[in-house]
Amino acid sequence: MTDTTPALPGWRHVYSGKVRDLYEPDATAAGAALRERHGDVVLVVATDRVSAYDHVLSPGIPGKGVVLTQLSLWWFAQLADLVPNHVVSTDVPEAVAGRAMVCRRLEMYPVECVVRGYLTGSGLVEYRASGQVTGIPLPAGLEDGSRLPEPVFTPATKAVVGEHDENVPFAVVVEQLGEDAATTLRDLTLAVYARAEAVARGRGVILADTKLEFGVDPTTGAVTLGDEVLTPDSSRFWPADAWQPGRAQPSFDKQFVRDWLTSSASGWDRASDTPPPPLPADVVERTRARYLEAYERLTGDALTV
Ligand code: ATP
Ligand code: MG
């Protein structure tokens, strides 16, 4: 990405995705001390960048990176008895305080582990065309926002930067990773969803769907939960008391940004090659409020950012 990344003592910038910047310990004495203390780690920094329809938008959403990191840390703790996670420490440089975590470096699986308890988004598009989602047949008569008879694992292949992720049948994941790894990813993903869905429901929030990323921890060989988890970027959260299938649901996530972009108000044609227009100040502010509300509703705590 073109954004300049902050210089962090002891850390060297190695990669930027759409939202996160990754660093590794550098060749200085400070970097050596980090390796000595933590082993083979990366610093995962969540920026305030916001992406939709595979475009990084401008401006960013102030405080968003802090919300993503703090909510991920909270969920990792909720899930710790179910699945190991990559977090090593939250002792990070001042310049990225609150928005960064020191994480075990994983060999990431090139699969987006998507689970859906409700039908919307790309799942709904597929269902309307074929009655299935990633090859899983669903009952007739489902609408936008319908609850599925049971949660389904609907994986997607991870695209290189700038390309779209593609929903694929489970059999493709088996071909790619082998039966054992594919089954482990599916079972862990469904287990995480079941736990998280129940936690969110207790807070009056529907977890409609979410995307997880796993990797192998080379030091233990364990399949480990990486990246961010159960944030408004990776998940659809709906207020339970307003749920009404047959229309788009109000949400605590970036569905709001997506809806603005595809509305006539933005003047943007998603099918064109042109970059999306800048987000107006009120869209930025309302998106920020939704991210904060997601954190507060789910954790029961306020967040100052
Ligand atoms: P892309 O992976 O195509 O860049 P993205 O735009 O979603 O997709 P970000 O989420 O912004 O990328 O960046 C995070 C990157 O860091 C992802 O590629 C993710 O797979 C990777 N990652 C997350 N946790 C770890 C980890 N513990 N070890 C190594 N890589 C990780
Ligand atoms: Mg990502």
TrEMBL record:
- Report the pathway entry: Purine metabolism; IMP biosynthesis via de novo pathway; 5-amino-1-(5-phospho-D-ribosyl)imidazole-4-carboxamide from 5-amino-1-(5-phospho-D-ribosyl)imidazole-4-carboxylate: step 1/2
* Record-listed E.C. numbers: 6.3.2.6
Q: Which PROSITE patterns match?
A: SAICAR_SYNTHETASE_1 (PS01057), SAICAR_SYNTHETASE_2 (PS01058)
Give the Pfam families listed for this entry: SAICAR_synt (PF01259)
Catalytic reaction(s) noted: 5-amino-1-(5-phospho-D-ribosyl)imidazole-4-carboxylate + L-aspartate + ATP = (2S)-2-[5-amino-1-(5-phospho-beta-D-ribosyl)imidazole-4-carboxamido]succinate + ADP + phosphate + 2 H(+)
Q: Which family does it belong to?
A: Belongs to the SAICAR synthetase family.
Q: What is this protein called?
A: Phosphoribosylaminoimidazole-succinocarboxamide synthase
This chain's source organism reads Cellulomonas oligotrophica
